[in-house]
Amino acid sequence: QVRLVESGGGLVQAGGSLRLSCAASRATNAMGWYRQAPGEQRELVATITRGGNTNYADSVKGRFAISSDNAKNTVWLQLNSLKAEDTAVYYCYARLGYPNELTYWGQGTQVTVSS
User: Fold this and answer.
1) At residue 92, does pLDDT exceed 90?
2) Could you report the per-residue pLDDT of 11-44, keeping only the tens digit for each?
3) Cα atoms found within 13 Å of the Cα of residue 79, Cβ hemisphere only
4) Closest alpha carbon to 37 in 111, 105, 114, 107
5) Of 47, 73, 79, 95, most Cβ neighbours within 10 A?
6) How are beta strands 109-114 and 10-13 bridged, if at all?
7) How far is CA 54 from the centre of its chain?
8) Backbone φ, ψ for residue 26 (5° rounding)
9) Largest Cα span, the chain
10) What is the DSSP string of the chain?
11) Which residues lie below 8 Å from residue 109, measured CB to CB, with a gap of 6+?
């Protein structure tokens, strides 16, 4: 089991920036963020592994940056050049376990971008 505590999010104008953070209660294999807009499916935004490998959705490449501190079991997502279509609930997730890997979710944080 792992507990994920998210912070950040809020209301920002288009072109602005926000920073999300997510702290896990124990070490994980990978952490990242999904988002879900109203009426849409949850989609992967960004992932970072414990080894530092990152992966981004095409829609956020060049605008969002994920980083982590393994010693703190914390991941950050820097959201820059925000667009109205980035409006969604952002969910932190963590994968852990070996050999069977399980996924755990945070409570979600709202990001609203006004145009």
Assistant:
1) yes
2) 999 999 999 999 999 999 999 999 999 999 999 9
3) 32
4) 111
5) 79
6) parallel
7) 12
8) -155, 170
9) 45
10) ---EEEE--EEEETT--EEEEEEESS--SEEEEEEE-TTS--EEEEEEETT--EEE-TTTTTTEEEEEEGGGTEEEEEE-S--GGG-EEEEEEEEE-SSS-EEEE---EEEEEE-
11) 6, 7, 8, 9, 20, 89, 90
**CB within 8 A of 50, min separation 6: which ones?**
27, 28, 29, 30, 70
With tokens 């992966």, the residue in question is 55
The two tokens of residue 55 are 């992966």
What token pair was written down for 4? 């994920």
Which tokens in the block code for residue 108? 């979600």
